[in-house]
Amino acid sequence: MANSCLQLSGFLISCLGWLGIMIATSTNDWVHMCKYGLNTCKKMDELETKGPWAFCVISTGLYHCVSLTQILELPAYIQTTRALMITGSILGLPAVGILLMSMPCISLGNEPQSSKNKRTILGGVLIFIIALCGMVSTVWFPIGAHHEHGLMSFGFSLYSGWVGTIFCLLGGAILTCCSSEPSSYQDNNRFYYSRQGGGNPPPASSNNHAKSAHV
């Protein structure tokens, strides 16, 4: 029962982390850039935001974005962020499907528990890969933007990516570490009963003992 609760908790946490990664991938509020200082730029209405897909200008009553379509001319940190975030978002689909099929409440015929444990471990590994994609992207992008544009602050999309990465790491750890307990427990019980039932040799019958004494 405890293992089932841990597996369900790991699945839900992983889904929340994947959702955070997808929100960060689809939005452009990663970093806020400014030439002078954040407070000065807010007063002058010259605050700019940048994400993997667009460059936006924020002012009073105006929100104008320019898409970053020159793929070959983009800096390496933007291209890498795009590739990793898309990879993490796509890998979430098979990971969630595999974890759903390994839930204790779902049974595929007479499938042994060991097969479900292997699927859980595979799903946990995929969640770890998603977390790795989010971690590299959300760390490298603000560093690259800072070197390119100077002063900046973090936006909503970047915080969403960080939270999603942490949740994926936690969910993947729960799924991979707690999936092998039921099989080992069953094997120990099976070994215990086999020793109890067949470990001691059967006692000799009283008739054979009497015949040997008579001879």
Automatic annotation (TrEMBL):
<feature type="transmembrane region" description="Helical">
    <location>
        <begin position="52"/>
        <end position="72"/>
    </location>
</feature>
<keyword id="KW-0597">Phosphoprotein</keyword>
<dbReference type="InterPro" id="IPR003555">
    <property type="entry name" value="Claudin11"/>
</dbReference>
<feature type="transmembrane region" description="Helical">
    <location>
        <begin position="6"/>
        <end position="31"/>
    </location>
</feature>
<dbReference type="InterPro" id="IPR004031">
    <property type="entry name" value="PMP22/EMP/MP20/Claudin"/>
</dbReference>
<feature type="transmembrane region" description="Helical">
    <location>
        <begin position="161"/>
        <end position="180"/>
    </location>
</feature>
<comment type="similarity">
    <text>Belongs to the claudin family.</text>
</comment>
<dbReference type="GO" id="GO:0005886">
    <property type="term" value="C:plasma membrane"/>
</dbReference>
<feature type="region of interest" description="Disordered">
    <location>
        <begin position="196"/>
        <end position="215"/>
    </location>
</feature>
<keyword id="KW-1133">Transmembrane helix</keyword>
<comment type="function">
    <text>Plays a major role in tight junction-specific obliteration of the intercellular space, through calcium-independent cell-adhesion activity.</text>
</comment>
<keyword id="KW-0812">Transmembrane</keyword>
<keyword id="KW-0796">Tight junction</keyword>
<dbReference type="InterPro" id="IPR006187">
    <property type="entry name" value="Claudin"/>
</dbReference>
<feature type="transmembrane region" description="Helical">
    <location>
        <begin position="121"/>
        <end position="141"/>
    </location>
</feature>
<protein>
    <recommendedName>
        <fullName>Claudin-11</fullName>
    </recommendedName>
</protein>
<feature type="transmembrane region" description="Helical">
    <location>
        <begin position="84"/>
        <end position="109"/>
    </location>
</feature>
<comment type="subunit">
    <text>Interacts with tetraspanin-3/TSPAN3. Interacts with OCLN.</text>
</comment>
<keyword id="KW-0472">Membrane</keyword>
<dbReference type="GO" id="GO:0005198">
    <property type="term" value="F:structural molecule activity"/>
</dbReference>
<dbReference type="GO" id="GO:0005923">
    <property type="term" value="C:bicellular tight junction"/>
</dbReference>
<keyword id="KW-1003">Cell membrane</keyword>
<dbReference type="Pfam" id="PF00822">
    <property type="entry name" value="PMP22_Claudin"/>
</dbReference>
<keyword id="KW-0965">Cell junction</keyword>
<feature type="compositionally biased region" description="Polar residues">
    <location>
        <begin position="205"/>
        <end position="215"/>
    </location>
</feature>
